[in-house]
Amino acid sequence: MHLRDSSGASGWGEAVTIFEEAARSTMLLLDGWSPLVMGLEADPAVVRRAVQERAWWYSGGGSAAFALSALDIAAWDLAARLQERTVVDLLGGPARAHDATLPIIVSTHAFYEDLDYQSEFLAQCVAEIAAAGVKVGWGKAGGAGLGLDPVRDELFARKLRDALPAESLMIFDIGARITWSPQEAIDRVAAFERYGLYWIEEPLGADNPEGYARLKASTSVLIAYGEREWTANGVRRILATDTVDVVGIDAGRAEGITGFTDAVRSIEAASKQVNAHAFAGPSSYAAGLAVSLTTTTCRQFEVAPLRNELMTELAPSLEVPHERVGVLPGPGLGVEIDRMAVVRLAVASSSSA
Question: Which of 62, 218, 271, 276 is deepest in the core (most CB within 10 A)?
């Protein structure tokens, strides 16, 4: 998403749609909103109000939330650039005046069938960027096969703990392809707890308050979910169940920087942690980082050691941080987008079928 004002200044935003059909529908909405925002002041609140004059009928989730996320992030980027400030500045500055940085954790998937090799690979990723720990996605492509056999799953937990430095955080992110019953989750987490698992993410999916209540009562391992919520109201709904310890939020899904900061206020009031899902492209990464730096409820920030095409092509100058990450240099979100790369990678909004 690209916003440009009459002076030629630009702001970039991003929706984390993942799948092409969702990207196409999001682009159609953004095309439809263009006349609503044309000529407006570069103020995220003004832009949001203009869109909601029509989107009130179909917003609250789905492609509308994706589109609003992209537009909102772009509006914040543009507003900050026009003032020659950072988005972090506009949000009130870093929450920790004594240290305006966050420790990084490696965030990647388990790919390899050989669990010794997989564990050593993850430990090497942690060592290379001096990360505070690792979050491992289960149920992804490859031969790892995690989540299917409790014996193999516990073996992986043991091997990974042995491979990591003793102080490293170990986090498991259970993918949507894996479906556990509450009792299976309780049994799995009990086994992982012996190896110092820090948190387990979405072991029962995005919406299972009764199952999460049972799991929470059975373990001291932190429970994380929330990144599939669309709005701050959705985050407040799961906070009210008292079944979540770490609330995941994706700025490219949950109505952008405005939605993220709204949710953070509720997370702060509930004394829970927030964790940015910043695994897609450079704009959502930078937006998640900006909000994360402004709240003490965020204690770490995820970094992918294996940069995807969106990162390498759209923002080649954005470096993988080492040990800690702070405010990105430069105005706005602090990332410079290669416009020609956007053209090369763009998906047309009209179907070729």
Answer: 276
- Residue 74's contacts (CB-CB under 8 Å, 6 or more residues apart) are 1, 2, 3, 11, 12, 13, 283
- CATH, domain range 2-88+337-345: 3.30.390.10
Specify whether the CB–CB gap between 163 and 155 falls below 8 A: no
| pTM for the whole structure | 0.94
* pLDDT tens digits, one per residue of 56-81: 999 899 999 999 999 999 999 999 99
Give the domain 89-326 fold.
Answer: TIM Barrel (3.20.20)
Cα-based torsion angle of the residue sequence 343, 346, 347, 349 in order, rounded to the nearest 10 degrees: -60
User: In the chain, what are the domain boundaries?
Assistant: 2-88+337-345, 89-326
Q: Which of 254, 257, 256 is nearest to 237 (CA)?
A: 254
Q: Does residue 308 surpass a pLDDT of 90? A: no
**Cβ atoms < 10 Å from Cβ of 194:** 11
Torsion, Cα 263 266 271 275, to 10 degrees, reads 0
User: Residue 341: CA atoms inside 13 Å, Cβ hemisphere, count?
Assistant: 13
Is the model's pLDDT at 272 over the cut of 70?
yes
Q: Worst-scoring range by mean pLDDT, 29-33, 95-99, 242-246, 321-325?
A: 95-99
